[in-house]
Amino acid sequence: RNCAAYLKLRNWQWWRLFTKVKPLLQVTRQDEEIQARESELNKAKDKLAKAEQEYTDLDRKHAQLLEEKAVLTDQLQAEAELFAEAEEMRARLASRKQELEEVLSEMESRLVEEEE
Q1: Tally of domains within the chain
Q2: Which residues belong to any copy of the Myosin tail domain (predicted)?
């Protein structure tokens, strides 16, 4: 029964065309799959290149910020030393002022005693 149906179909022109075109359809489908995979691969490569560029930029910014931090740390150290020196000088001046005020008050009291 199937054999008889096949023998009828075998000589039919549309069946011959179908049997010749069917393998070509699979090749086309494979080509489409290959193109789709190549497209995905290109997208992945673009993403990778973009990520590498971002990483390079961030690494460069990180190095720049580390340099700025080092410069600011040095400036802070210098300012702290200047502040310590100024504070020491202020303390010396305050003690000297106190001594001079004591001397002045002593002299004023002597002057008052001598005038009396």
Answers
A1: 1
A2: 28-116
